[in-house]
Amino acid sequence: METANNQDTRRSKHGQGLSGITNCHPLRGYPVVVAGKGKRNRKWDRETPLGLVRRARRMNRTLATAFPHVYCELDFTNPLELTVATILSAQCTDKRVNLTTPALFREYPTALAYAQADRTELEEMIRPTGFYRNKANSLINLGQQLVTRFDGEVPDKLEDLVTLPGIGRKTANVVLGNAFDIPGITVDTHFGRLVRRWRWTAEEDPVKVEKVVGDLIERKEWTLLSHRVIFHGRRVCHARRPACGVCVLASDCPSFGEGPTDPLEAAALVRGPETEHLLALAGL
């Protein structure tokens, strides 16, 4: 017998007919749709925790085939350069940062150089990256902290990195994973958007996203996973029009169909140097 609560659910603003929201997934927190969206949604709603782990690891392996040569897209030669470049990348493209840093790194090769920098000159050098006053302040303070606390060297521990000016968990994990080869999950805009689209988690807070994904994927894979997801988000799984019709993850993606599913239409949306390889995997 249908209760009044169930009747209210059927009339929910979240759906039409029987597609209302009844509750949330016990582990990931996203709304569970009971009916009205067909077999595909019911498949994901019934996914067990073990099923999610298996799907997430399978998707990671698929991404490794799609992007066999992933890397940090910021140019650097040592931990200090990567730390500086990552700070500059806030609200700025990696391409723009890479155009700015060669001259910057020549002028400021050490932590002491940043600590003693002329603020006006430093601001002018990093102006193209935006928010240059705040970033200059972070870099000068970073240099001072590194000199006074760490003998001028970038530390290789998360708990130390996050105490430094301009460095949060995202920047710290970028530095750990790419400069020190210590596994870390980098939850940037692309990463958070995609793992929510894939229903790995519904969390919005980056720290919580990092924890959930860390429980799904083997630790040794964390840094490479971060790069693969970010590459996929930039090349294929765009925020507004994902290229669903040529996506290698289509069979494992609960959000398949958010973008065009026609292969030729979707192919036009793929970007980046891997385009030919990605389209070949899609049979084009």
UniProtKB/TrEMBL annotation:
Keywords noted in UniProt: 4Fe-4S, DNA damage, DNA repair, DNA-binding, Glycosidase, Hydrolase, Iron, Iron-sulfur, Lyase, Metal-binding
The EC number on file is: 4.2.99.18
**BP-aspect Gene Ontology terms:** base-excision repair, AP site formation
Cofactor binding annotation: Binds 1 [4Fe-4S] cluster.
Report which superkingdom the organism of origin falls in. Answer: Bacteria
Read off the lineage from the record.
Answer: Bacteria, Bacillati, Actinomycetota, Actinomycetes, Mycobacteriales
Annotated residues for binding of [4Fe-4S] cluster: C237, C244, C247, C253
What are the residue boundaries of the HhH-GPD domain, all occurrences included? 88-235
Disordered: where is this region? 1-20
So which cofactors does this thing need? [4Fe-4S] cluster
Question: What reaction does this enzyme carry out catalytically?
Answer: 2'-deoxyribonucleotide-(2'-deoxyribose 5'-phosphate)-2'-deoxyribonucleotide-DNA = a 3'-end 2'-deoxyribonucleotide-(2,3-dehydro-2,3-deoxyribose 5'-phosphate)-DNA + a 5'-end 5'-phospho-2'-deoxyribonucleoside-DNA + H(+)
Q: What InterPro entries does its record include?
A: DNA_glycosylase, Endonuclease-III-like_CS2, Endonuclease3_FeS-loop_motif, Endouclease-III_FeS-bd_BS, HhH-GPD_domain, HhH_base_excis_C, HhH_motif, Nth
Q: Which Gene3D superfamilies match?
A: Helix-hairpin-Helix base-excision DNA repair enzymes (C-terminal) (1.10.1670.10), Hypothetical protein, domain 2 (1.10.340.30)
**Protein known as:** Endonuclease III
Could you tell me one molecular function GO term of this UniProt entry? DNA N-glycosylase activity
Q: Give the family from UniProt.
A: Belongs to the Nth/MutY family.
Q: Per the UniProt entry, what species is this protein from, by scientific name?
A: Mycolicibacterium chitae (Mycobacterium chitae)
The UniProt function text for this chain reads: DNA repair enzyme that has both DNA N-glycosylase activity and AP-lyase activity. The DNA N-glycosylase activity releases various damaged pyrimidines from DNA by cleaving the N-glycosidic bond, leaving an AP (apurinic/apyrimidinic) site. The AP-lyase activity cleaves the phosphodiester bond 3' to the AP site by a beta-elimination, leaving a 3'-terminal unsaturated sugar and a product with a terminal 5'-phosphate.
Q: What class of enzyme is it?
A: lyase
Q: Which Pfam families match?
A: EndIII_4Fe-2S, HHH, HhH-GPD
The signal peptide, as residue positions, is none
